[in-house]
Amino acid sequence: MVRSVFCRKFGIVASKTSCITLDGEAMKEDGEVGTFQPEETHESRSSSKSFALRWKHENLRQMALIVIFSIALTIMILLVVYGQAGKQISLVIDGKAQAVETRTGMLQEMLEEQSITVSPHDQVSMPLNGAISDGDRIVIERAVPVKITADGDTKTLYTTDSSVQDAIKKSGIQIANEDKVYPALGTTIEADMKIRVVRVTKRTVEVEQPIAYKVIKTADPSLYKGDNRVVVSGKEGTLVQHIEKVFQDGELVSKKMVGKSIATNRVDKVIAVGTKAKPVVKEPVIQTVSAQTSTTKTATTTNSKKTAASGSKVITVSGSSFKYSKVLKNVSMTAYSSEEPGIGTKTASGTRVTEGRTIAVDPKIIPIGWWVYIEGLGFRRAEDTGGAIKGNKIDVYYDSVKHALNFGRKKGKTVYVIGPVKPEAN
Asked: Using the 8-state DSSP alphabet, how is residue 355 labeled?
């Protein structure tokens, strides 16, 4: 009965023992074979074909989903099995390589399995949550602390860089061409290294220096030998030196001259030197006399005039008496030194300048070679002349230019003109 219903449902003509499929094949049951003839009606055949098409349409999608699910499940199982298999990993830490075998799937799990910690500053070649595969090479570079001092500020930097230059670049500190870095930029980084950046600045300043003038002497036949006259007064020039100063972190460390220029030209001093021969003059010779007698000797002059001793005057100074031929009032005195430019050590009379003895005079007032007594100064000998020494003027010689400058200018002095022989103390 069931078979009959089944056969009818599917459009199959059945008997007691079997049913016939739609394509005419007989189904066997209990070992018996029977042949049934399907009904010849057109309605029966159409119903059977429609049912088959409908069944195929409704179940084809379900069959495809089942096949896809089966394939995905198989792949997942294979991945799990493969993931649980052992992996050989090459782990390089700070340049030291080691082989690690693991069954974990992520890098973080493998590092925890190997008791390896990674700080936030360390550099890892792949993400910690990344999947690892057999044969992977993982590089870990440990960051080390360094202290960098620049512009008065010190900060600690954790770096994996290999050189000082890379570490400074990573810190964001700008290095100028003139700046200095200690240790050098190419030095290998070490833990707790101290790096110092020294700021170098240069500044050029101008410094003025005097330019000494030269003394030029020219022959002047209109002047007697020994007489000098200043034609052009000397004037110092000005030299500007360009000095480069070098500062390190604001402190001056060196300076040098990088150039120079002349701001004001010097004016050389020109002195006219007399070349005219002097007339020969026989100087009078006066002998000293004692204070107790009035006996004197005569003196001979160039014009053959004789001067009697009774005509000479006598002055007593510090217990000593001596004769003098004339007295000069209101004499103006200055001083000079051989250390001054253009002043030599040889006098107009041919002697060597000597402090405490030599003075420059006007030969018309005091004959060259004569001794004088200067009030407040003592005995001096007229040995030199000067272009500016005219009339009642005397230039006193000093070895040191400093002493000559300190002497200054003195006026109102009284000078006793004695003669060619220095008086001796009584």
From this structure: T
pLDDT value of residue 86: 78
**pLDDT, tens digit (0-9, with 9 covering 90-100), for 162-181:** 899 998 888 889 999 889 99
Q: Which amino acid is at 80?
A: V
Task: Characterize the bridge pairing of strands 237-248 and 251-264.
Answer: antiparallel
How far apart CA 256 and CA 245 sit, in angstroms, is 7
SS3 at position 12? coil
Cα–Cα distance for residue pair 142/221, rounded to 1 Å: 97
Among 269, 259, 272, 204, which residue's Cα sits nearest to residue 237?
269
Neighbour tally for 157: CB within 10 Å? 20
DSSP letter string, 105-128: SBHHHHHHHTT----TTSEESS-T
Q: 385: how many CB neighbours lie within 10 A of its CB? A: 23
Fold of 299-419: Barwin-like endoglucanases (2.40.40)
Report residues of the chain scoring pLDDT below 50. 1-40, 281-311, 426
pLDDT of residue 244: 92
pTM for the model: 0.40
Pairing of the two strands 371-374 and 393-398: unpaired
Beta partners for 200?
248
Contacts of 54 (CB under 8 A, 6+ apart): none
Neighbours of 21 (CB within 10 A): 15
In this structure, what DSSP letter does residue 165 have? H
Among residues 131, 141, 142, 143, which one has the least CA distance to residue 89?
A: 131
Helix, strand and coil percent figures for the chain, each rounded to 5: 20, 40, 40
Please provide residue 321's backbone torsions phi and psi, each rounded to the nearest 5 degrees: -110, 140
DSSP 310: G
Q: What is the pLDDT of residue 294?
A: 37
Distance CA 203, CA 340 (A): 38
CA atoms within 13 A on the CB side of 144: 14
101-116: b or e for each residue (b if 16 or more CB lie within 10 Å)?
Answer: ebebbebeebbeeeee
Q: Is 366 exposed, middle or buried (0-12, 13-18, 19+ CB in 10 A)?
A: buried
pLDDT of residue 332: 92
For residue 67, give the 3-state DSSP assignment. helix
DSSP state of 369: T
Q: Which fold has domain 203-276?
A: Resuscitation-promoting factor rpfb fold (2.20.230)
User: Identity (one letter) of the amino acid at 355?
Assistant: E
Query: Which CATH architecture does the domain made up of 87-141 adopt?
Result: Roll (3.10)
Nearest alpha-carbon partner for 228 in 270, 280, 267, 268:
270
